[in-house]
Structures are given as structure tokens and as C-alpha cells.
Design goal:
The chain is an alpha/beta fold and 279 residues long. It has a single domain, classed as Rossmann fold (3-Layer(aba) Sandwich), CATH 3.40.50. The protein is built from eleven helices and seven strands. The chain has a seven-stranded mixed beta sheet with strand order 3-2-1-4-5-7-6, sandwiched between helices. Helix 4 links the parallel strand 1 and strand 2.
């Protein structure tokens, strides 16, 4: 990831809205939840744990396997996989304050022997070839400037037979969406430092995964199962975003903007689970 985008990502996650919002509402988590029929849309923690269980299911690795969490945040997914699925997980993140918090969290949970954390860009992985049995991202590959370079790094550090799992977005091509929707996606992706989301038209990411040397590529659209959480965010964000928009300061509330605009144009994006294997 070129340094200019690393700076943009750091700037986005370092904003007061991001740091306070993620801690206040999601207890440090930074991904959507998975809902079943009848689930309360407001029980975010249960939904997020189900999404993490889905990740473990897709990794399909034996106990003791070594896994790379690429974009680990404060380590809540890392810790869950270690504690509940007995995996050894290395988390990396470009944000130093995330790494510091992740280490404290793991120590508090007594997971020091199963997890470790390093400040690192996933476009320049400082690991030997074939270091991991599995690699995953949860809504972080969209921040990459050069997704191909990142996928090549993932392929390099995976062992033969290793599993790649990506929980990421795709979108309708701009030519097939209303101009207002296209403008909204473009603005959100720019302010939230998500250049790859701007590139990930439906079908693109799976093609990039295959070109990086992976096989057995699958894609599962689980948008409907995460939308209840987005709806909650939209309801919370609607008023502050409306005020900010009228003051022409909507870019100061990027997460509120994302919630409102993504809900408004929910028919033009998908939330997908991509899986693949290294030969």
C-alpha cells in the first residue's frame, strides 16, 4: 500500500467520530454482523460474533493452524478465533494505536500464547513464504490502493493448500446506477480511504483473486443478512448527517454519511464472502 494511502487510512480511523463511534457502539469492532430471521437488529454483539463464526467456518482449518488477520483493528476477531476455535492468529494493522490496544486486550484475556500483533501494511508483508495456513480480511481490502499487490502477498505467505477468506463489498458499475448513487459511492470511498471499493464492481474481486494464482474461488452474497445492522446505523446517523449535510460539512461525519448513503442506495452494493485456495 503506497504511503499516501496509508496516511489516508490512518487519518480516517484516527478521527474522533471513528475512534469514539467504534468503541461506543461496537466495543472496538469494525465489521458488520450476521443476522438470522427473528434476530433483534439491535443486538450487534451477537450478530458480529455470528459473522466471526462464519469466518471460522469458511477458513475450515484444524485446531492449532496459523492464520493471518490482515487489518486486525483492536484484535477482537483475532481473539475470538483463538479463544473459541483454538487457532494461532497473527494480526497486522497500519494503525499503531490499534496494535497497542490489541496487545493489551489479548493480555487481559490470557491469549498471549495464541495471538500476536505487529504494525505492518498488508501490501508489504514481512513474513517468510508459506508462513500461514489461512489468511483473511474483514472489510479491509477495500482500503488497498493496489489490491493485486495485496493478493499477491497473501498468496506468497500462504502454505500450499492454504485458505483465503475475504469479507468484502462489491458494487454495481457506475454506468448502471443513478448519478446520485454513483456520486454518493464516490464521495464515501474518497473520504473513507476505500479506493478498491471504487474498483470492485460485481465480479472484479474474484477475477483478481484468480489472477493472483488462487484456485477454487467461490463468492457468497450475504447482503440481506447484514442489512439489519446497516439499518440501525442509518436510523442513528440520519439526523446528525442531515444537519452536517445542510452545513456542507458531511465529510466531517464520514461514518454517518456511509450509513445513510449506503442504506439509501443499498440496491447497488453487495456484501460478499470470497473464499479461495492456494495450490
Amino acid at each position: 500500500m503506497p504511503q499516501d494511502n496509508v496516511d489516508d487510512v490512518i487519518r480516517y480511523y484516527h478521527t474522533t467520530e471513528s475512534r469514539v463511534g467504534y468503541d461506543l457502539f461496537l466495543r472496538g469492532g469494525k465489521h458488520f454482523g450476521l443476522y438470522r430471521p427473528g434476530d433483534s437488529p439491535w443486538n450487534w454483539q451477537a450478530a458480529m460474533l455470528r459473522m466471526e463464526d462464519k469466518l471460522a467456518q469458511e477458513l475450515a482449518l484444524p485446531k492449532g493452524a496459523h492464520v493471518l488477520d490482515a487489518g486486525c483493528g483492536v484484535g477482537e476477531v483475532t481473539d475470538h478465533l483463538a479463544r473459541d476455535f483454538d487457532l494461532n492468529v497473527t494480526g497486522i494493522d497500519v494503525l499503531d494505536f490499534n496494535i497497542a490496544q490489541a496487545r493489551k486486550r489479548a493480555a487481559r484475556l490470557g491469549l498471549d500464547k495464541q495471538v500476536s500483533f505487529r504494525q505492518m501494511s498488508y501490501a508489504q508483508l514481512d513474513f517468510p513464504d508459506e508462513s500461514f495456513d489461512g489468511v483473511y480480511t474483514m472489510e479491509t481490502l477495500v482500503h488497498a490502493t493496489d489490491a493485486e499487490a495485496v493478493l499477491e502477498q497473501f498468496h506468497r505467505v500462504l502454505k500450499s493448500g492454504g485458505r483465503l477468506v475475504l469479507f468484502e463489498y462489491s458494487r454495481t458499475p457506475e454506468s448502471q446506477m443513478p448519478k446520485r448513487a454513483a456520486d454518493a459511492f464516490r464521495e464515501v470511498n474518497e473520504v473513507a480511504a476505500m479506493p478498491s471499493f471504487q474498483r470492485f464492481d460485481h465480479g472484479v474481486l474474484e477475477q483478481l483473486v484468480e489472477k493472483s494464482g488462487f484456485t477454487a474461488v467461490t463468492v457468497e452474497d450475504i447482503t440481506a443478512q447484514m442489512l439489519p445492522m446497516l439499518r440501525c446505523f442509518e436510523l442513528i446517523a440520519r439526523l446528525p448527517y442531515t444537519i452536517a449535510h445542510r452545513l456542507h460539512k458531511q465529510d466531517r461525519l464520514i461514518n454517518a454519511m456511509s450509513a445513510v448513503e449506503f442504506w439509501r442506495y443499498r440496491d447497488y452494493f453487495r456484501y460478499n464472502v470470497y473464499t479461495a485456495k492456494k495450490r
